[in-house]
Please model this.
Amino acid sequence: MTKVTNVNSSLAYEILLYLNSFYLGMFFVCEVAMGILKAINVSYPENALWTEAGIFSALCLVEVVRIFLGRRGNLASKKVPVFFSVMLTIPSAIGVCYFLIYQTYILRLEYIWCAVMLMFHALELAFAILFIVTVCKHQQYE
Amino acid sequence: MKIITYLAFTFLSILIQFCVMDFIQEKIQSDETAKLDVTTQKQILSDLLKNISSKPHALYYRTNDVMSRSLKNTSPSKIYSNSSMSDVTLGTTEGTTTILDVLYDESTSDTEATTETTTELYTTTTEFDNLTEITFFETKNKSSITPSTTPKIKFSLHCDCNLLYKVCDINCCCDQDCSDYEHKLFLCHETSKAETENKAADGCISHMLDEHRYGGSMLDNLFCVVKTNLPSKRSIRKYDDVPMGTYYKWRNDEQKQKSYEFKKTLYKQADPIWLLKNGIIYYLDFPAPMVNNYCTDRIPIAFLKEEKITCNVKFKDLEMFNILKTSEEAMVISATNNTFNSTILNCTNLHCINWTILACENGLCWNYNKTYNEASCTEDVCVNIALKIDYSFYYYDMKIVNATIKFHLQNTSHVLPLLMQEISVHFYLANKSIDHVIELSGNPGYVNGLPVIASYAKSNHTVNFFNNTSGAWRRMLFPENRNGLCVSTNTSNNMVKFGVNKRTKCRYIYSHTKLSKKNMCRNIQNEIIGLLRLNNNISISPFGNPHNIADDNWINLIVDINEQEPIYGEYNENTLKLYCYNLINRLSVTFMFANVNEKSYTGQNKILSVKYEVTAKNISFNVEDISIVITVDVNFVDLSKPSIVEYAGNPHINIYLPRDFFFPFPHNGCLNLSNTFIVSIYCFVILLLCK
Model:
């Protein structure tokens, strides 16, 4: 029994992921710059700066994998990579929420770009679920 | 090319996001402004903001436009603008142990110290002038000098800027000695209003404060720290949660050029001091540095604004010459209630006063006499040159009642291309000379840089402090170094100032060399003891305001000279040498203080104890020149808790695992045997399977 799939790629999901990949680059650069600014100007409690740097690195890594899996799954109309991408959205969103609420010093600018990032996550999550549902519906068996 | 296009698109989308948010924010602000017209709504909003400030929501965008308008004038709660609060650049007692080690270095040789100079840590602005013979206040009928005061505003008793006893302190809004009119001069109501709203505000307050000065933009606002998640601190002392509400920006020193015009109204804060010369009204100014240390600029003397400026100037451009000319030609004027309606301005409708010019030398002042005190130069030296000038303006009953200029005369070299002149401006809201006003050194705790309060009386120290007419008897004075020699007078400038570590070295010369050699060492000793005031009973006030301090709480300083090694001497007629053994030549005073919470006031500097210590030395003199270097060390040791903030460490969980957690086989009993047996069988089976 071989699986035959239709072309079910979601254009909106693809656009979102594509934009998100650039936004992630900007987010990474700006957050590093803000981190340097804060490290110079304000005093951090013991290990807090390193903790935040570690969380940020993990967040970026998870984001890269999530976007990669999302795009790969979407273009190839495969639900498994998209499913993992959806799963990775959870730690990624938690990481963004950490920078939005719990990091040591929160700048107003960080409020904005973390909110935008969360918005991306929410939209991508919605479209990813739609995509998975569509793929599941249109799956044909010989 | 492709990537750049995509990047541009991404940034464009972000920009749109920001613009939309900004628009939404502005929309919210305009709505809120409309609501703020109603008092109750304002209260609700302020309460709301308070709650948000304490528990901020991550996605909440703060809107502080309304607050920003009123917050720009917010000043720190502690304002010490009075003259008695001289700026202290030194005085921190951190690392006192090191300082003590350095100060107690005994390597200084007496013979080497021929040109010892006093170790001055800062220049003082407060003078103890002997003004008993000079009356520079006009004698007036009592009825005419009674101020038209209205009932005073009631403030809380704790007022740490109230440092002049029974005299209104400038810019001290809580001083009950000030009348309503004087409070209005200080703009107290505006400040308190701003402070109240400051509490309700959150976010980047500092940015909002400086918005007008720096021309703040949305971009600055974005770099504000809006929330901090610092861990709990171990330190007992309270610290501001900096940098909450701070942002980083280059300083903008651009100053606006102001034009001044005589408005015929009463003096207000920051108004220039007006002079009248031959019917022409102009403002009084004084030299100031513009871009370097040279006196290239002139700035107006602003009403109620204390100034202290130091700059370099050529001899012919010294300010004293300019002042002498101005004081002869012009009078200081104050607008009165009749002035506003007058078209011709002269002394009939203005309050005019002449300048009082005093010449001072070594703490003594007298009326400036042009004949005796005129500056003159010989080939090398110029005499009667005032490099230090003090302006004092006394404002009382809504007009300037006295304007005094003090020239601190000294001799200078004529060949010097540039001279450094220092000009100070002081304002007092009093009708009597500041020399006769009792100055507190803190309220109630000591303020750094202000004199330590001492009493030389045997009892009733507090009563004596407030009744004593001479300021010298309220201060702890030590011999002063004048041209290398020890001078001890009541006008001495060498007083102990709180928080200022100081070493004074000077040479004492024994003048009675012709007298009998038999008791010479003892006589020298007695004179040194007198010079160091060791024969006086000194008590130190633990607080800067000795009000309501019982005699028992004053710290009594006693040095029992008799407990020291006895002094004795030896005279060798052949070598003409006098040997004095155990001669006291060094005094060390160590103040132990702490920042305490006492008398329901927090963070007050209190002197806890004082250690008075003398050191004796064996010294040989040539009988023709009996002189000795005397050293006085004053040190302040802070015994408060360390100011370093310690953040709480990582959580530590004490988990007690059973002993056999990693090796769950008991050592004894039947189980042990059976377990070993089971393990052995397992091993055997595995080996069999492997084969």
In short: Chain B is about 25% helix and 25% strand. Chain B touches chain A through 33 residues (CB under 8 Å). The longest strand of chain B covers residues 577-598.
